[in-house]
Amino acid sequence: MKILWITNILFPDLCKELGMKELVTGGWMYSLAKLLICESSVKLAVATVYSGKILMSKEINGISYFLLPLQRDNKRYSKNMEKYWLEVQDEFQPDAVHIHGTEFAHGLAYIRACSPKNVTISIQGLLSVYERYYYTGITNAEIFKNISLRDILKMDTIFQQRVKMRKRGMLEHEYIQSVDYVIGRTSWDMAHVLTINPKVNYLFCNETLRGEFYQHTWSLKSCEKHSVFVSQAAYPIKGLHQVLKALPSVLKKYPDTKLYIGGSDCIPHNLKEKLLQTGYDKYILRLMKKLKIRDKVIYTGILGEKEMCNRYLKSHLFVCPSSIENSPNSVGESQLLGVPCIASYVGGIPDMIESGKTGLLYRFEETEMLSKAICDIFGNDDLAELLSFNEQAVAAGRHSGEVNRNTMIAIYKAIC
After folding, report:
1. Is residue 94's pLDDT more than 70?
2. How many Cα atoms occupy the beta-carbon half-sphere of 2 within 13 Å?
């Protein structure tokens, strides 16, 4: 059974082959790929775009790779991609095609060029829904006030980002309306997919997470007490500003609290960084100064797999404060390690967390509830231990590599 994957990223082995720095995103796809190629019945090819000028193919560690030249932004449709997909189709002749995510346009070029027959799409997020929540409670006045030079030159203010997301959402609708099969994992994505295409066959499969997160267990005794970790904070939907608003109330009760944020510091340290500063970064910096909490916030820099895992393990708790999500892998990773998890009650997250048992949920808008949830865990070791034990057990089943591999193979057979 020959399976062609269409992805938005370059896998680590391919990055090494090309002399590129390995990406820190998409680890769940690579984890599943390694499990699939252990099955003698599966021949896997992975196709994606790169900045070169010719179509390339490589065979690395049991996976065939196709690199399609990208001559423009892959967030917009390029008809030029269609001819390359016809070449890939002719060379590999897949029995089934699996497009991972609807966020970028090059997968749609495959459907238009080669037909949607035997094609399935995995839902990661849904841009056509996400754009509704893009401002995440930030007022128009605050957005205007914090527009940066970089935003102006790139025509990429928060206002414009939302418009771009809405346009990409139109392509997403075409993706879902074109195919007969969609793979999802939450009641939230199922509801939206079936609204877009009532005739689609909705197939369920959970995700397999990065390997490092199966090998460790969080311990209350060895973590840094009163430390909070937020793994993503680059743009408004991820909701960092809500955590900042919640922090002063926590500090009144636990003045030694520290907030660790995965990613680059929002404070520019030189002219180049100042020129690259986004409007959202400016807003975050002003908010920290206004709330007088800058000394309580620590940016970790970009973290690789092992570094990210270690940061989770060192933290007293993890917060996913997004305004909208499907089933964030950050929550899955936190639960798999047993790090007490707090998350906003949005999208598919309630499918992952039973509040009070496998984590704590709160309304995104109500930072007071977030403050209380943080203080509840800080002040109650029994609650922290209970959440840790329960969520780790649930996550081990949800993210079982063997179960998810077998489910995916059954899906491919059904499609073929």
Report:
1. yes
2. 10
